[in-house]
Amino acid sequence: MLKIERTENPEYILVTLKGEADFNSELELRREFEDLITKKVDIVIDLEHTDYIDSVGISLFTYLKKELIKKNREMAFYRPIDSIKKVFLMTRLDLLIPILEKVEDLEKFGKEK
Hints:
Layout: E1 2-8, E2 12-21, H1 26-38, E3 42-53, H2 55-70, E4 75-78, H3 82-91, E5 99-100, H4 103-111
Parallel strand pairs: 2-3, 3-4, 4-5
Antiparallel strand pairs: 1-2
Helix pairs in contact: 1-2
């Protein structure tokens, strides 16, 4: 099961995912991402409370990033747990979507534009 929380501010939308980003949560994540694409700010995905991600979750993150590129917007991951960070490094997703580790990184991300 996946719980999605959203915090909006002028620089970016922080989307906190709690649970598993996988096949079972695909429809819920897709709906959330479709709505995020319509917004006019950058997106940060907080993964501190995400326990698991599979290939469906990775493909949805890739889809979101590609759609944001078309709109000249950015996306980043924030505080992924070690096992998820390893998946991003192994799949090289970190080269497409930056990983922010600290609050300072998040604050800088919001002010880069």
